[in-house]
Amino acid sequence: xxxxxxxxxxxxxxxxxxxxxxxxxxxxxxxxxxxxxxxxxxxxxxxxxxxxxxxxxxxxxxxxxxxxxxxxxxxxxxxxxxxxxxxxxxxxxxxxxxxxxxxxxxxxxxxxxxxxxxxxxxxxxxxxxxxxxxxxxxxxxxxxxxxxxxxxxxxxxxxxxxxxxxxxxxxxxxxxxxxxxxxxxxxxxxxxxxxxxxxxxxxxxxxxxxxxxxxxxxxxxxxxxxxxxxxxxxxxxxxxxxxxxxxxxxxxxxxxxxxxxxxxxxxxxxxxxxxxxxxxxxxxxxxxxxxxxxxxxxx
Length: 299
What we know:
Elements: H1 9-16, E1 19-29, E2 34-35, E3 43-50, E4 52-57, E5 64-67, E6 71-74, E7 80-83, E8 101-110, H2 117-120, E9 126-128, H3 134-152, H4 157-179, H5 185-191, H6 193-204, H7 212-219, H8 223-234, H9 238-253, H10 261-267, H11 273-284, H12 288-298
Antiparallel strand pairs: 1-8, 2-7, 3-6, 3-8, 4-5, 4-7, 6-9
């Protein structure tokens, strides 16, 4: 499936969700080794820089062979182990200078609340092979640069590989959209020309006085058809999506100490501060005042 849009909705959404990837492991393994990052409650990726490995999942399917250049992404923290040998074989203990398996691991974090429609739209596991296609070629080029940065460890290498990992995740989403005939969830809405118009309008002006009727007109659909189509693809109602979007934007605006809660409420389209406070606490678990204090403490 291909995707084209005059507005870059994906960039807007990923920035709004505060995408921040972090590489936490770059090592060479040999002999009887295994690696398991399950239980972190974070999206994870593993990049095979050299050699080969086997991916074992908590399912009945056989172990998945991986070779140099292959990338594995686990958006939902699925149980897994990465090892040098399949379960049915006995590993060798020898390890020469150039015979080990180089593995880079990282987290894909989002700082904007627990709900994340981008991750929710991805499958349990994504395996991107180092094949000679345009989409995988870009991922391969990024992977090579990340591995070189981690190997050379020049000043600033950690920041460099982390930001390259951000780009790697964007490329993985593109790869998934390109190869998935029927994307699901928010990504399906992203690829839908009509819903894309409505989503772009909401993200462009979240504080606007939107209604289902007005969003339906923006999408060029009837109210009923739009509402049903939106829920079917996105997984929540248009107004529910808008409310969550407003709360993420409100969280960003509250980082400005000179901006009052009442002002933020007004900017987000709430007629009363009380209604805004109630909606904010529903999403974040604390009121806007407490959230602002938490932000100051973290800073």
